[in-house]
Amino acid sequence: MKLVRISTVLAVLGTCLAGGTVMATTASASGYGCPGSLVDTIPVQIGDFGTIVGDVYVYWDGTDNCAVAVDPSQNAEGISVSIRECQETVMTDECTPKTGWVTDSSSSYKWYAGPVSVNAVGHCVSVTGTITTSDGPHYSFYSGDARDC
Question: Is residue 1 domain-resident?
Answer without folding.
Answer: yes
